[in-house]
Amino acid sequence: MLELSNVSVKYGSFAAVKDIDIQVGEGELVVLLGSNGAGKSTTFNAISGLQKPSAGDIIFEGKSITGLSPDKIVQAGIVQCAEDRKLFPQMSVHQNLIMGAYVHRKKRKQVKESISEVYELFPILREKKENAAGSLSGGQQQMLAIGRALMSRPKMMLLDEPSIGLAPLIVEQMFEVIQKINKDGTTVLLAEQNAFAALKIADRGYVFESGSMVVQGSSEELLANDTVRRAYIGA
Ligand code: ATP
């Protein structure tokens, strides 16, 4: 479904991502692992059009999306849920969700259906639908960011560190919801530092170090890999 071939991304002369190859099949849940600064967010930004690759090609459903604008990439079916969530803090939960349906703004019935689906997935958001997004807890804001991303009815969702800054119990719920979104038919590419929890729900993973992809394999293989265990699982 998604294929990155020999993709590199530079900030000025600094190569943040070097010659990476990644494939994600339809229906898969794939995780990118790596410490701070390894290049995961940069890779996401290259896929979602926020950062132009300096080399390589990104193919989605058989067509090149390399260098397309972010709105064209959302229209193609890929939505990114960024690490810093990028909510509109003064606007209500409901209004934030409506904003997520911008690409479908003329299909009012569909927008209503999508909102109901998001409220079913996250009942707490229905309870708080009139509250300002900025007044929600960290976990609820993350749910809202994911809910808003779902409003564009993506084929593929890029989730950048959804567990960051959340309490352990909430992290567990977050991973359960991500798994459910995937089982309901959305392909997921996840970036995480929480390697153990991510590999428990993922089909496969790629490990990044200093902008290069150094190990790849099924979740079982990565959970058993000594380098991965030492560096990311603390075992
Ligand atoms: P994190 O979880 O901290 O976001 P990451 O694996 O997602 O880590 P990136 O954010 O992609 O890593 O960063 C990769 C490298 O690129 C880092 O060395 C970072 O300092 C650098 N970098 C990221 N964004 C920029 C930018 N806008 N300008 C210059 N350098 C940047």
How many separate structural domains? 2
Q: How many E-type strands?
A: 10
Helix and strand content put the structural class at alpha/beta
Mean pLDDT: 91
CATH superfamily of the largest domain: P-loop containing nucleotide triphosphate hydrolases
Judging by the overall fold, what is the CATH architecture of the largest domain?
Answer: 3-Layer(aba) Sandwich
Strand content: 25-35%
What portion of residues is helical? 25-40%
- At the first level of CATH, the class of the largest domain is Alpha Beta
Bound molecules: adenosine-5'-triphosphate
CATH third-tier fold name of the largest domain: Rossmann fold
Please state how the strands of the largest beta sheet are arranged side by side: 6-7-8-3-9-10
Assign an overall shape.
Answer: globular
- Separation of termini? 34 Å
Cα radius of gyration in angstroms:
17 Å
Order of helices and strands: EEEHEEHEHHHHEHEHEEHH
Sheet having the most strands:
6 strands, mixed
Low-confidence stretches: none
